[in-house]
TrEMBL record:
<feature type="site" description="Lowers pKa of active site Tyr">
    <location>
        <position position="84"/>
    </location>
</feature>
<keyword id="KW-0560">Oxidoreductase</keyword>
<dbReference type="InterPro" id="IPR020471">
    <property type="entry name" value="AKR"/>
</dbReference>
<dbReference type="GO" id="GO:0016491">
    <property type="term" value="F:oxidoreductase activity"/>
</dbReference>
<dbReference type="InterPro" id="IPR018170">
    <property type="entry name" value="Aldo/ket_reductase_CS"/>
</dbReference>
<feature type="binding site">
    <location>
        <position position="117"/>
    </location>
    <ligand>
        <name>substrate</name>
    </ligand>
</feature>
<protein>
    <submittedName>
        <fullName>Aldo-keto reductase family 1 member C13-like</fullName>
    </submittedName>
</protein>
<comment type="similarity">
    <text>Belongs to the aldo/keto reductase family.</text>
</comment>
<feature type="domain" description="NADP-dependent oxidoreductase">
    <location>
        <begin position="19"/>
        <end position="298"/>
    </location>
</feature>
<dbReference type="InterPro" id="IPR023210">
    <property type="entry name" value="NADP_OxRdtase_dom"/>
</dbReference>
<keyword id="KW-0521">NADP</keyword>
<dbReference type="InterPro" id="IPR036812">
    <property type="entry name" value="NAD(P)_OxRdtase_dom_sf"/>
</dbReference>
<dbReference type="Pfam" id="PF00248">
    <property type="entry name" value="Aldo_ket_red"/>
</dbReference>
<dbReference type="InterPro" id="IPR044482">
    <property type="entry name" value="AKR1C"/>
</dbReference>
<feature type="active site" description="Proton donor">
    <location>
        <position position="55"/>
    </location>
</feature>
Length: 323
């Protein structure tokens, strides 16, 4: 097995490739770019693809996978596909319908990993981001532990191999882990994580519970106008990161990704550019010594690019906690 196909073992015995390809697409980017990028990623050697119902690109991701299988580039079992349950489907009776919609869009019989996208339920309906007349998010009251039980049933039905969560703080994870009658514990928690927000306390907690921390925004996010304050600092331009990159004759992006691998975090890398997609796979070709890791740890400034303010009024808003 080549280095670019290095994997991490999940607590349920399945293996997840240690670098993932992110597929979120901002509104200003045409969907055809998602198809093109996914094709490029699979050709380049990515075998872990991370998508979600709410990204609205599952059709394109499915097409890319299907075409690469048809061309003999990969088999279905070579691809580790993650998707996510959206917040308007948190009522237990709706969970499976969201997954089935995703499977239909992806043209797949199962997904390898299915995550609760946020711990916050929203009002069910046709709108992914339901709002009232004042533009305020319409939230819902659902105990995510009941949602988790419906996720477990999807695993039992063979529609998903592994189940996990995203954007959960340690208290919320604790609630699932301590839930009476828990059948399957979350195998991972996908959160924003990069040198400006290194999540060290959450990482320690997750490691203690045998939960893999998956990092989105590992390159400091793509700075999409809808979600990110445009005046926030650009991670990949940080002089500290750039100095380490210069020392190792690598790009700042590769250093940011390698930083996560060294910590036992699984980073997701997103790009629509062929050269960047190929370059990101070089993360397994070098290592960072302890002194550089210490320097990168020192970049932490508790800066969250994606604060999901539209959930802030909900009691389960996850980012009020320290970790």
């Amino acid at each position: 097995m080549s280095s670019k196909h290095q994997c991490m073992k999940l607590s349920d015995g399945h293996f997840i490739p240690a670098l993932g390809f992110g597929t979120y697409k901002p509104e200003e980017v045409h969907k055809s770019k998602s198809l093109e990028a996914a094709n490029l990623a699979i050709e380049a050697g990515f075998r872990h693809i991370d998508t979600a119902f709410a990204y609205q690109v599952e059709e394109e991701i499915g097409q890319a996978i299907k075409s690469k299988i048809a061309a003999g580039v990969v088999k279905r079992e070579d691809i580790f596909l993650t998707s996510k349950l959206w917040c308007t489907f948190f009522r237990p009776e709706l969970v499976r319908s969201c997954l089935e919609k995703s499977l239909k869009r992806l043209q797949l019989d199962y997904v390898d990993l299915y995550l609760m996208h946020y711990p916050v339920p929203m009002k069910p309906g046709d709108d992914d981001f339901p709002v009232d007349k004042q533009g305020k998010t319409l939230l819902d009251k659902v105990d995510f532990c009941a949602t988790w039980e419906a996720m477990e049933k999807c695993k039992d039905a063979g529609l998903v191999k592994s189940i996990g969560v995203s954007n959960f703080n340690h208290r919320q994870l604790e609630r699932i882990l301590n839930k009476p009658g828990l059948k399957y514990k979350p195998v991972c928690n996908q959160v924003e994580c990069h040198p400006y927000l290194n999540q060290s306390k959450l990482l320690d907690y997750c490691k203690s519970k045998d939960i893999v921390l998956v990092a989105y925004g590992a390159l400091g996010t793509q700075r999409y106008k809808r979600w990110v304050d445009q005046s926030s600092p650009v991670l990949l331009n940080d002089p500290v990161l750039c100095d380490v990159a210069k020392k190792h004759k690598r790009s700042p992006a590769l250093i940011a990704l390698r930083y996560q691998i060294e910590r036992g975090v699984l980073p997701l890398a997103q790009s629509f550019k062929e050269n960047e997609i190929k370059e990101n796979l070089q993360v397994f070709d070098f290592q960072l010594p302890a002194e550089d890791m210490k320097v990168l740890d020192g970049m932490h400034r508790n800066l969250r690019y994606v604060s999901a303010e539209f959930f802030a009024d909900h009691p389960e808003y996850p980012f009020s906690e320290e970790y």
